[in-house]
Amino acid sequence: MFFKGFSYLRFLLKSTNQHGVHSPFVFDLITKCFYKKTNTTDIQNYKKFKIDLLQNTNTIEVTDFGAGSKVFKSNRRAIHKISRYAGTSLKRAKLLIRILNYFTPNTILEFGTSVGLGTAALHIGAPKAKITTLEGCENTAEVAVNQFKKFSYNNIQLISGEFKQSLLKLDIETPLDLVYFDGNHQKEATLNYFQFCLQHINNNSVFVFDDIHWSKSMEEAWEEIKKHPKVKVTIDTYQWGFVFFRKEQEKEHFIVRV
Ligand SMILES: C[S@@+](CC[C@H](N)C(=O)[O-])C[C@H]1O[C@@H](n2cnc3c(N)ncnc32)[C@H](O)[C@@H]1O
Fold it and tell me: Which helix (H) or strand (E) holds 59?
């Protein structure tokens, strides 16, 4: 708690808005995507998906694969509670939808499906993209798959299993246009998934890392990612870290309030 408070204070002191940014690519991203309004129909569609989960009072036994939960004490969890506390918030879902509208990715990979809230935002923002999402807990994955069927989200493939094993099963024919890392929030694991995905990028690929300030080790992972020679531009928005590989850009790191 103390760690997050301190890191947020540091973020506030260092962060800027579009006025502190001289890169045209980042300026456009901030003004035409980050600070834009989300399409109303997209918001309504996301809310329908989320409300349906929030009304689901069934409970499931959850297998914890990640860095553990700071909210749940027991592994027997109600689906409406998982949706409320572990899933993407409305604010984040809206930003994700805008990012997809802006970059129009064709191939998307998500680490950590949970009950499918982030995946729903990915689908709504890019309904024609090929979306692959990975989830370790079988019971949680089953909830997500049923939810995608119920809402006819037919462009999503869920691979159930530990990420390391699932990555071996991935059939990546075309480069990954967007990767959303929202699974195992631990340094070594994050860097391993990053290294794996790096083999499948193109010049315009976008990586989005969730919770880069979640812990000291996640901050260390973020610093290593920034230093990687293939990484050109990064944007720290506190909750999410964005990574771009555009060869035409100078290497530069931004800290932006969203
Ligand atoms: C924060 S939740 C994902 C939230 C989801 N992306 C959303 O936006 O609603 C992280 C999920 O990743 C899964 N996970 C964490 N580490 C994993 C691993 N090593 N292998 C497989 N699944 C893992 C957990 O089971 C959990 O459901």
Answer: strand 59-61
Domain residues for the domain of 175 are: 2-255
pLDDT tens column, 204-227: 999 999 999 999 999 999 999 999
Q: How many domains does the chain have?
A: 1
Tell how far the Cα of 65 is from the centroid of ligand 1, in angstroms: 7
Ligand 1 atom with minimal separation from the 92 CA = 8
> Helix, strand, coil proportions of the chain in percent (round to 5)?
45, 20, 35
Strand, helix or coil for residue 1? coil
At residue 74 the predicted structure's pLDDT band, cuts being 50, 70 and 90, is confident
Please identify, by atom number, the ligand 1 atom nearest to the C-alpha of residue 116.
Answer: 9
Which of the pair, 17 or 226, is modelled with greater confidence?
A: 226
pLDDT in the model for residue 73: 67
pLDDT of residue 88: 84
Q: What is the CATH number of the domain that holds 213?
A: 3.40.50.150
Ligand 1 atom with minimal separation from the 180 CA? 6
Cβ 82 under 6 angstroms from ligand 1: no
C-alpha 27 to ligand 1 mean position (Å): 32
**Atom 8 (ligand 1): residue with closest C-alpha?**
118
Q: Tell me, what amino acid is at 182?
A: D
pTM over 0.85? The answer is yes
Output the CA torsion 43→48→53→57 (10° steps): 140
